[in-house]
Amino acid sequence: MIKAVLNHINGVDLYAILSLGLFMSFFIGMLFWVCSLRKTHLKHMQQLPLDTIEKEHSGDNYHA
Amino acid sequence: MNTMTTIETFKYDNRIVRNFAVATVIWGLVGMLGGLLLAIQLCLPQANFDISWLTFGRVRPLHTNAVIFAFVGNGIFMGVYYSLQRLCKARMFNDLLSRIHFWGWQFIIVCAAISLPAGKTSSKEYAELEWPIDVLITVIWVIFAINLFGTIIRRRERHMYVAIWFYIATVITVAVLHIVNSLAVPVELFKSYSVYAGVQDALVQWWYGHNAVAFFLTTPYLGLMYYFLPKAADRPVFSYRLSIIHFWSLIFLYIWAGPHHLLFTSLPDWAQSLGMVFSLMLIAPSWGGMLNGLLTLRGAWDKVRKDPVLKFFVVAVTSYGMATLEGPLMAIKSVNALSHYTDWTIAHVHTAALGWNGFFTFGLLYWIIPTLYKTPLYSKKLANYHFAIGLTGILVYVVPMYWAGVTQGLMWKQFNAEGFLAYPNFLETVTQIIPMYWMRATGGLLYIVGAILMSINLIKTMKKGELEEETVAEAPALEPITTDIEKYYYPHRALGLKSILITGTSLFFIYIGAYVLPSNEMQIPGGILFLIGIVLLVFNIVKIIDAREDNGEEPDELPSFNLEDDQHPYRHRALERKPIIFTCLSLIAILIGGMVEMIPTFMVKSNIPTITSVKPYTALELQGRDLYIREGCVGCHSQMIRPFRNETERYGTYSKAGEFVYDHPFLWGSKRIGPDLHRIGKKYPDAWHYRHMIDPSSTSPGSIMPKYPWLIENTLDNDSLERKITTMRKLGVPYPEGYEEVVLKELNIQAKAIAANLSKANMTVASDKEIIALIAYLQRLGTDIKGEK
Predict the structure, then answer these.
(1) Which segment of A14-23, B222-231, B277-286, B527-536 scores lowest on mean pLDDT?
(2) B759 in the same domain as B675
(3) B281: in domain
(4) Range picked from A49-58, B125-134, B258-267, B492-501 for highest mean pLDDT
């Protein structure tokens, strides 16, 4: 059935190649980008939730 | 430029967080009690009380909407309003918007709580609310978006933490999903018809339904996990790199998997396979995220033993992992053949809802309320009891449901030695699992008891402490950036708007090109447009890369906010510094999957072959169909016979795509608490249906279906009938011109025939009662092609 359906779409090979291309480039691009991030930057980002700048006290006092 | 930075003092708005927290608790209890009522109704049909607005069909959407949009929804807003302010080092953008958001959302919930039991429903799962409420949801959502983006733009922290990415993805995707799926043409104030029909409606609905799970129940909570889990454990997230991969792969892959809700249905086969493959791929990012959460606690497990907050979080994240492994497994066609329509699905969603969303929300509340009220939790012991009771509740709920699902699924499929169905009576497979339903109700009750303990604990905590309405904080202002620095940090700021416009235009060209490509006359212009789009897109990407490379000279003076350690050239971080570009990229990531699924299904005629014998419903049948929608029959009865021998033996020939072309909305259903109804037409005499609707156990002893006595008393409301016909015609249903003028007469003729039929069987009922229309609809179901088997 799948062939019968696909054969009705003109230029269907384009869809296949396009989607594979999009798909692969998405993940390859993401991996490149993630790997190229600097350690110092990652450390800074990781600390953001822990970085309490409240003037008097952080909430953590109440969870000891 | 002065490298000394000005320290700014500002205040976080805690009141709005508290308000959302209170709403979370209240609506959570309401939603869970609704669920408990439903669970009891399934073991004890008397619990429907013969009251229309308390019947299972009407309470079910109330329960699902309450727990998803009221309980989890308010939970999201509570967590987002708390964490966003702190991550951005800025107060929420506008207090008035915050308040409108809060009260608007509660108003929507109240509207839902009134309209759903009243039978005002679109019947599309998790999108049941009728169009005026849909419009209101859109307005309030946009207000939330303005508030969120406003805060992000005014932030004092240059970088956007990954939690904020999840929030942004949530806001835009939910908006897209909600608007596309809710497109309907109003008939009157609380009645509308979906613009899509049959197969297409089903595809759009489950693209929505699946991604509502993804972007309402998952991504915002993952954002909260990435903020509150490190916060509560007091250690940074295990791997920030992993969280980035988690984010992008999750939002990219999730969208494609919607069709796995429609395996073996009349949806084109290729779309089903697409849904299955992408579901399996989803395991990777989901488990990456779960492990990232759990590994954050490495070396802190001693804390987990003592701290109820962390206990709840650990169970929540583990449940996330279990549900996201199970989901893809259920999306494998051969597993789905057994699991679909059974209580297995119910077990699956409750692992996620009770474990992941519920327990995470509880942990969040136990953390946030003491923090806001500047006092330790009233009783840690009580919280630990809540944990134990809640966890027991989940297990007592979920395990029997798996048991029930597998048992019933196998019974449906069982053939005896002679080659006949071993359990030809559907009811037999229901009564078999009633004990499991009792256990489920017990599990649900335990879970609620836990939630009540929490409510008491939180109220006591709030009484003990005092709300810190605003928390004073200080942070350096983000320095205004000189041209040099701007060039350095924001190489494509000038490019920004232009590049977004070019990207948008190129995608538009590609879309339109692909849209007209299949038609013979338009092939060449379509192809040209498509190519132009591709060229533009590539050109734009090259421009962006160029701009990134050409960073200019490093300025002499850099703003101090970024001068920690040895970090500088910030090329790679341009992405998260720019919420708008980031938002566009996320939007593209989520649109691709939807487009690939939908364009062919909508464009290619052969995907839904026409059947000449399929005709539009008569006026009376259409009215009956609307009653079927009003009573929520779709909650328990599917109208989709899958191409399995046991189903064709039991129900009749399997359902074809072409049979649903006039179904606005589709009513395939997702659960068989009762049998499939697609071939119910002409299977029983009218009198059988009449007796069955008054008292189901009179025709089917042991049935758990509610009674519908009001259908015999209520007079059919034909006021909007003409508008219904014209609306349907607008949507492409071929009612002849002028049909609306004779429609009432025709309706009465058909109604009188049914009433005469009934009176022959000694059942006297006026022909203008609702029951007549419902019988007309049921007797029509699936008869268009019933002959061919």
Answers:
(1) A14-23
(2) yes
(3) yes
(4) B125-134
Q: Which of residues 412-471 of B touch A (CB under 8 A)?
A: 471
Q: Are residues B225 and B326 in the same domain?
A: yes
Sign of the CA dihedral running B592, B597, B599, B602: negative
Task: Name which residue leads in pLDDT, B430 or B547.
Answer: B430
CA distance A15 to chain B (A): 9
CB contact under 8 Å between B227 and A37, yes or no, is no
Which residues are CB-neighbours of B611 under 8 A, at least 6 positions away?
A: B656, B658, B659, B784, B785
Domain of residue B519: give its range: 499-548
Indicate the DSSP class of residue B69.
I
Count of domains observed in chain B: 3
What's the rounded Cα separation, in Å, for the pair B761 and B734?
A: 35
Clarify whether residues B256 and B336 are in a common domain.
yes
Q: Do B234 and A30 touch (CB under 8 A)?
A: no
Sign of CA dihedral B429, B432, B438, B440: negative
pLDDT for B764 equals: 92
In this structure, is the dihedral angle defined by the CA atoms of residues A46, B467, B454 and B98, taken in order, positive or negative?
A: negative
| Interface contact B160, partner A, CB < 8 A | no
Whether B156 and chain A come into contact, CB under 8 Å, resolves to no
Q: Provide the pLDDT for residue B436.
A: 97
Segment B241-256, tens digit of pLDDT:
999 999 999 998 998 8
* Domain final residue, candidates B451, B468, B485: B468
Residues of chain B found within 8 Å of residue A11, distances taken between Cβ atoms: 517, 527
Q: Which residues of A touch B567 (CB under 8 A)?
A: 38, 40-41, 44
**Does the bond joining B285 to the residue before it have cis omega, within 30 degrees of 0?**
no
Residues B669 and B524 in one domain: no
Q: How many other CB atoms are found less than 10 A from the CB of residue B605?
A: 10
Contact A36 B572 (CB under 8 A): yes
Per-residue pLDDT tens for B21-76?
A: 999 999 999 999 999 999 999 999 999 999 999 999 999 999 999 999 999 999 99
My answer on whether B59 and B142 are in the same domain is yes
Q: Three-state SS for B7?
A: strand
Does position B574 have pLDDT exceeding 50, yes or no?
no
User: Nearest Cβ partner of A2 from B270, B376, B527?
Assistant: B270
B485: in domain: no
Are residues B454 and B526 part of one domain?
A: no
Q: What is the ipTM of this complex?
A: 0.78
pLDDT > 90? residue B559: no
Residues in chain B closer than 8 A to A2 (CB atoms): 269-270, 273
Quick check: is B233 in a domain?
Answer: yes
Shared domain for B528 and B413, answered yes or no, is no
Is the Cα dihedral B719, B721, B722, B724 positive or negative? positive
Query: Are B535 and B442 in the same domain?
Result: no
Cut 0.80: pTM above it? yes
